[in-house]
Design brief:
heterodimer; A: OB fold (Dihydrolipoamide Acetyltransferase, E2P); 6-stranded mixed beta sheet; 18 strands; B: about 325 residues; mainly alpha; 2 domains; two-stranded antiparallel sheet; AAA+_ATPase (chain A); transport (chain A); ABC transporter ATP-binding protein (chain A); ATP binding (chain A)
Chain lengths: ~350, ~325
């Protein structure tokens, strides 16, 4: 178990910067999720930490040790790949024990360690099988077993659940969380799936175009986004953002153009209600009148797309609100709106 | 009843008229369109194949016409097996196949790995250079090598003897390993080596290309997983590359077995069509050719060709047992 520190970490391919001077401190045993859209540099950052990618600038520390020039095996990390990267010609037992063999661990000790890990991950009956004979979830567990058997100081996960179906993904999330609880090792987990990030992370690091946009607990990230990128990236459907140049919008949302001079306003679809009594925390709810364009049923909930001042607005309501059409009134709590300045940064109230 | 049915079903095909080939329900047209393949395959593939099988049980003097064919049962096969020259040609073929085949693959795999990992921009050019011998005329290659291995003026002898005669303080220090006098490469003990070398040189590029294409399909993740698991470069080659190359190795070795057992052009030209002194360079395919077209014994030649087919089939089966089967 060890802390990890990125200090001005940078990576560029030729003249194209991919990761731009990232600074991040990760504590012992923490579960950190690097979250961002495709091409934001999250996997590159992870690969630099693993030693699979050279670094163009800055330093990486694992514990107290500077690891910039260390071989991956010397960093004492283990990695789970998106494709699992299991050796197809080896059995489950050989896959899990391969690193121990390379580290010249004695056979008896090796068998003991592999057996322990297999028991922990319920892989014991599968030890003699080859990857081709395993299901997606079982392969995922073998990949985790391969990572766990060495008792590494840091676990790295590179989008490990992307290849699984939705149901299995939910189950594997729980298993990964349970594993982290059991082994209490530092975990750095890369994903573009915000559900994974919200459910697994102690802290989420939001990356965009090679820069850190925000670091915080899942609740902080959702409730207090630092800027419009985070506000729109986290939450589904995305936060409704309006330009405040329209005086009607300013008036409807009760925004005073004071010293902070807000330029944009945001409100989450979950915080707009069709009934006034659903609004909590205020005596009198504010409201806007909108025109319903379409409605989408998602099982337990419904997304209603509306037109408001020539802009589109989305509301998430209960699924039984099926008859909503024409002009409707949406109620909200004024304290749940977000204001952004001309640099797209959140204005704190 | 029929007339009622035909009138009451509006989708019924119209009465047959118009172009015969385009008429709906024409059952002959599809067969007509695919017939060129079957005709060509039948005439040039299937018929010679079955005829040679039929012929292998007959004694036949082709100049005397088809009526002169005489049923002899397994006599041609028995004769071929008891024939010293055939036995020798099989032995020669085996030796040349092993001496040229094993180095081909032993070199092609690491060479492909080297090209795969060390070249990016110039990769295709390098592959092209290795591939050139494969697309060059066998006659040209064989003639060039015959010149290179010439006793008095060949470059091979010049290089070897100059090394053998390399002198330091009046002592020929390398004479224990290199010859000091020209070697006569046409002597029986060298013939097979010379042919093997030409075959090896010609096909090593082909096999390199095969292995290279297989290497390019190995996912990068596997190497990265191996690096994180602490595997060094050799261990990556041994535990990732080699097992992942197995399916291609099966294919490439099968092609080598088939190609080497049918070896004809190189030994034929290098030995001037004679098989060399003491028939040391006469392969089974050459023996078959001479039996048929020089000795006009088509029955025995056909039997030899079927014996060769059995040997190739057997070796391919063996190869499948060793290298066949997929990981995936």
């Amino acid at each position: 178990m060890a802390s990890v520190q990125f200090s001005n970490l940078a990576k560029s391919y030729g003249d194209t910067p991919i990761v731009k001077e990232i600074n991040l401190d990760i504590d012992h045993g923490e579960f950190i999720v690097l979250l961002g859209p495709s091409g934001c540099g999250k996997s590159t950052t992870l690969r630099m930490l693993a030693g699979l990618e050279s670094i163009s600038g800055g330093d990486i520390y694992i514990g107290e040790e500077l690891v910039n020039d260390l071989h991956p095996i010397e960093r004492n990390i283990a990695m789970v790949f998106q494709s699992y990267a299991l050796y197809p010609h080896m059995t489950v037992e050989q896959n899990i024990g391969f690193s121990l063999e390379n580290l010249k661990v004695e056979k008896a000790e090796r068998i003991k360690l592999v057996t322990n890990v297999a028991e922990m991950l319920e892989l014991t009956p599968l030890l003699d099988r080859k990857p081709k004979d395993l299901s997606g979830g079982q392969r995922q567990r073998v990949a985790m077993g391969r990572a766990m058997v060495r008792s590494p100081e840091v676990f790295l996960f590179d989008e490990p659940l992307s290849n699984l179906d939705a149901k299995l993904r939910g189950q594997m999330r729980k298993e990964i969380k349970a594993m982290h609880k059991k082994v209490q090792t530092t975990v750095i987990y890369v994903t573009h799936d915000q559900v994974e990030a919200m459910t697994l992370a102690d802290r989420i690091v939001i990356l965009n175009e090679g820069k850190i946009e925000q670091i915080g607990t899942p609740k902080q990230i959702f409730d207090q986004p630092k800027n419009t990128f985070v506000a729109k990236f986290i939450g589904a459907p995305a936060m409704n953002i309006f330009n405040l140049s329209n005086p009607k919008i300013q008036h409807d949302f009760g925004v005073s153009m004071g010293e902070h001079n807000p330029v944009l306003l945001g409100i989450r679809p979950q915080y707009l209600y069709l009934n006034e009594n659903e609004v909590k925390g205020v005596e009198k709810a504010a409201f806007v009148d909108v025109e319903v364009i379409s409605s989408e049923l998602l099982g337990a909930s419904r997304h209603i797309k509306c037109k408001y001042q020539d802009q589109t607005l989305v509301v998430e309501t209960a699924s039984h609100d099926a008859t909503v059409k024409g002009i409707v009134r949406l109620y909200f709590n004024n304290t749940q709106i977000h204001l952004f300045d001309e640099n797209n940064n959140t204005i704190t109230h | 009843m029929n007339s009622i049915t035909s009138q009451s079903v509006p989708h019924k095909a119209p009465a047959k008229k118009g172009n015969f080939w385009l008429r709906k329900g024409n059952k002959i047209a599809p067969y007509f369109f695919i017939s060129p393949f079957f005709i060509i395959f039948g005439v040039f593939g299937l018929f010679p194949l079955l005829f040679s099988l039929y012929l292998s049980f007959h004694y036949w003097e082709p100049a005397a016409g088809l009526a002169a064919m005489e049923w002899v049962g397994l006599e041609n096969y028995i004769f071929a097996f008891q024939d010293d020259w055939f036995q020798k040609s099989i032995y020669n073929t085996g030796v040349i196949a092993l001496k040229s085949g094993i180095p081909q693959h032993a070199l092609a795999i690491p060479l492909a790995f080297f090209i795969h990992t060390s070249f990016t921009r110039w990769r295709n050019t390098v592959i092209g250079v290795y591939f050139i011998p494969y697309i060059t005329s066998t006659v040209a290659i064989s003639l060039v090598f015959t010149t290179l291995f010439s006793r008095d003026f060949g470059m091979v002898n010049q290089v070897l003897t100059s090394l053998g005669n390399f002198t330091i303080a009046d002592m020929k220090v390398l004479s224990w390993i290199f010859p000091v006098e020209n070697i006569d490469w046409t002597r029986p003990e060298y013939t097979k080596d010379m042919i093997s070398f030409v075959v090896f040189w010609r096909y090593v590029g082909w096999n390199t290309v095969l292995y290279l294409s297989a290497l390019q399909t190995i996912p990068r993740d596997l190497y990265e997983a191996a690096i994180i698991d602490g595997a060094n470069r050799y261990q990556q080659f041994r535990y990732v590359t080699l097992p992942m190359l197995k399916p291609m190795a099966f294919f490439a070795v099968t092609l080598t077995i088939i190609g080497n057992l049918q070896l004809f052009e190189e030994p034929f030209i290098i030995t001037g069509g004679t098989g060399g002194i003491d028939q040391a360079g006469k392969t089974a395919a050459m023996h078959m050719y001479i039996t048929a077209f020089v000795e006009s014994d088509f029955g025995t030649a056909s039997a030899i060709s079927w014996i060769l087919f059995m040997i190739i089939a057997g070796l391919t089966w063996l190869n499948h047992k060793v290298l066949g089967g997929s990981n995936h």
